[in-house]
Each structure stands twice: as C-alpha cells, then as structure tokens.
Write a structure and sequence with these properties.
Layout: H1 2-6, E1 9-17, E2 23-32, E3 35-45, H2 48-57, H3 65-90, E4 99-110, E5 115-116, E6 119-120, E7 123-127, H4 130-137, E8 141-143, H5 146-151, H6 161-168, E9 175-180, E10 183-189, E11 214-220, H7 223-232, H8 244-247, H9 253-259, H10 263-266, H11 275-278, H12 280-292, H13 297-319, E12 326-330, H14 337-346, E13 351-354, H15 365-378, H16 386-389, E14 399-401
Parallel strand pairs: 1-4, 4-8, 9-12, 12-13
Antiparallel strand pairs: 1-2, 2-3, 4-7, 5-6, 8-14, 9-10, 10-11
Length: 404
C-alpha cells in the first residue's frame, strides 16, 4: 500500500458493469499526473443465464437475499477474471498492474430514501465482492465508491464527472460529456477551466474550478429501447443494433408527449435514476400503451428512441447554464445512429463528437473513469464533486482491499 501511494505513475485497471447488465467492461490505463493513457480495453459479456440472474436481483419481487449473497461473490470472481483475461490478451503482465478500481454491479439505487431518526437516509447497493478481486488477482482493489458520497449527504451519483473533468476540460470550449448507457448522464464542463491537476495538496484541496461542474442523469439511455426490443422479440434480441429498427419506424407523438411528463424529467439537479424508475415495469407499461394504439414494432422502438433523445435535449435546455459548444458522446448509445441523428436534429447548434477522437474508446470511458477514481482514492484525493451529487463536502470515495 505504501509503495503504491508513493508512485507517481500507476498502472490501473478499471472495471464497470452498467444498468444494462450486458457484461464487464475492463480497461487498463497508465496514469501520471493529469495524463491518462489507455493501454487496453475489452468487454466480457455475461452469459444469458448470468444476465437473467443479475436482472432478477434488480426487482424487489424477484430478488432473494440468498441469491444476492451468492451473486455478490460470483461477480467478484467474474470481475477478477476480466482483469486476468484482458492482461493475457493484451500481453500486459498482471504483476505490472498496481491497482484495480471496480464500480461493481448496481442492483438497487435509492437516492431519495425513506426517513430514519428524522433524517432522509439515501442508499445504494453494488455487488461484485472486491475481496474476491483482490485475492484472485493479488492486486489492491478499490470498490464501492457510491456510499461515502451518500453518507456525506449526496446522491452517490453520478461519479464519473471527476474523470470527465480530468479528461475533457478545455480552456476555450464549453463541453458536455454525454454518456448513453442503460441510463444517460451528462457532465457540463464550462470553458476557461483549463486542464485540472490530478493531485491537489490535500483531500480537501480539490481544484476550485471543479465546483463549476454540473452533472446529472438526464433519464433513460438504452434501457427503455432495449426493454422494448426484448419484449417485442420475446427475449430473442437484446438491443436495436445501430438503431436499424427505429430507423424504419415512425415516432408516435402523443405517446412521446405522455412519456415526457415523467416526474423525474422535471426534477432539478442534482438527481440520479435507474432501473427502479425506467426498468422492466416501465417498459411493460409502454408496451401496453403502444399495443392499445396498434403501433407496429418499428414504431414502438422509434418512439422509445425518440424518448431518450428528447430527454437529453430537454435536460440541456432546462438545466444547463448554456448550450455547450460540443457534446462528447460515449457509451453503447453512441453506436445507435438513429439516436445520434435524433439528438443532432434537436441540438442542431451543438457539434457532436465521440470520446474516440480523444483516444478513449466509446465503450471504455466508464471503465477508464473508475480507474481514475481509484487512483484518486489511493492518493487520498477527494474524488466526488459536491456540486454534482449534492454532498455536503468533498470526500474520498471507495473502500480499499489490499492485494498480496
């Protein structure tokens, strides 16, 4: 541990499994000061049985405490295997990796929370036991990042704005980093922020410019689109590849208008959401509404896709201090050409780019972000952004499990 902390350059593996529960995204980066170099990335898909088991844990009516306990440790093994396999495939010696940052797999996220003892207690639960990761790989592992922010009064999300700030700040351009995973989230980076130092003087020395960062969940990303595809195909298909099905359909404006009345979309930031609001139950409601109006499957998917695009565009208009000069896209939704076209139509004055143009694979950005967060944690750097999560103060996130 002491040796890791004293190093200026660290090789860090980042692990992420999002709300879509498709698989483990694994990235390996070298970090030195404010410079982050992506060395390797790959997604290791879950088997259909594993994915089904994970999604069952995300619904109170199907989640069982014994299954949660078991899958927590199973996923720890799966996450560890992802690091080992990525090193092997990339010819990167496992022993050269100094640190692992693992987001885990969220199965429940309750940023509002019921009251206890006169106070609102926010809560979240990610599984993928870090002790298993550290034991299997022999590498010090940082995980469970969200609870500390919640303990400090925040929503525990979004967490990637710290990494977005490190990777994409620009002196001249105002940027919005738009991730479209299962849930879509935006990080607003004002211009004239400059490139931030990675290592402040102490844990409360977070660069003051970071307090100008705004970030929040805009609503569903791929979650509703994927959910509709699964219902329509009776589980035979998991997503709309490239937006091909949506491209053949027509958006039902009345249904879209009703969808845009969802109360989450009107809430002011800080705010975060998940499968609890836009998961299976929501998709079943939407499917029922589209069936009543006798929509074709293509129209159903087109309407769901328009919903994601509209929630992002509407959030920009309602909640950002100004329109960004550039939107930097990442996440699986960046591959959906129909969704990207819809976004460009609604935000015609915003230049749309991707993280690929900055040397970060579209699909790797979230995993890279948790490598950066782990680096900050091990260095004792406050790595939440209170202006984003609503926390009372900057805090160091995560729990550290020493390696061998």
């Amino acid at each position: 541990m002491t040796e890791i902390v004293s190093k200026d350059r660290l090789r860090v593996a980042g692990l992420m499994s999002g709300t879509s529960a498709d698989g483990v995204d694994a990235a390996i980066v070298d970090i030195c000061g404010g410079k982050v170099d992506l060395l390797a990335f790959e997604t290791f898909p879950y088997s259909s049985a594993m994915r089904k088991s994970i999604l069952a844990l995300c619904r109170p009516e199907t989640a069982r405490v014994d299954d949660i306990c078991h899958l927590n440790h199973v996923l720890g093994e799966v996450f560890a295997e992802a690091v080992i396999k990525l090193c092997d495939k990339s010819a990167i010696p496992l022993r050269s990796v100094n640190l692992i940052g693992s987001h885990g797999q969220t199965i429940w996220h309750n940023p509002q929370g019921p009251r206890y003892g006169g106070r609102v207690i926010r809560s979240t639960l990610q599984i993928g036991e870090p002790s298993r990761i550290a034991q299997r790989t022999g590498i010090t592992t940082v995980a469970d990042f969200r609870p500390r922010d919640m303990a400090a009064g925040g929503e525990g999300a979004p967490l990637v704005p710290y990494a977005d700030y490190v990777l994409f700040s620009d002196r001249r351009l105002c940027r919005a980093v738009q991730n479209i995973g299962g849930i879509a989230n935006v990080t607003f980076l004002p211009s004239s922020m400059g490139v931030p130092p990675m290592i402040p003087r102490d844990i409360h020395g977070q660069d003051a410019r970071a307090t100008n960062v705004l970030a929040f969940d805009t609503g569903p990303g791929n979650m509703v689109i994927d959910g509709m595809i699964r219902i329509i195909s009776d589980g035979k298909r998991q997503y709309d590849r490239g937006g091909a099905m949506a491209a053949k359909g027509t958006v039902h404006k009345d249904i879209l208008k009703e969808m845009l009345r969802h109360p989450f979309l009107r809430r002011r930031p800080p705010k975060s959401t998940g499968r609890e609001q836009f998961g299976q139950q929501y998709c079943e409601w939407l499917y029922g509404e589209t069936r009543k109006r006798k929509l074709k499957p293509e129209d159903m998917v087109a309407t769901a896709t328009a919903f994601t695009a509209s929630t992002i565009a509407t959030a920009y208009c309602r909640f950002l201090p100004r329109m960004p000069d550039e939107m930097i896209l990442c996440g699986g939704g960046a591959h959906n050409a129909t969704l990207v076209r819809m976004l460009q139509r609604q935000l015609e004055d915003v230049r749309i780019r991707s993280t690929d143009e900055f040397g970060i694979n579209i699909d790797a950005k979230e995993a890279v972000s948790f490598a950066i967060l782990a680096y900050a944690t091990i260095k004792g750097i406050a790595n939440n952004v209170p202006s984003v999560t609503g926390a009372d103060e900057p805090v160091v996130l995560g729990k550290i499990v020493p390696g061998r």
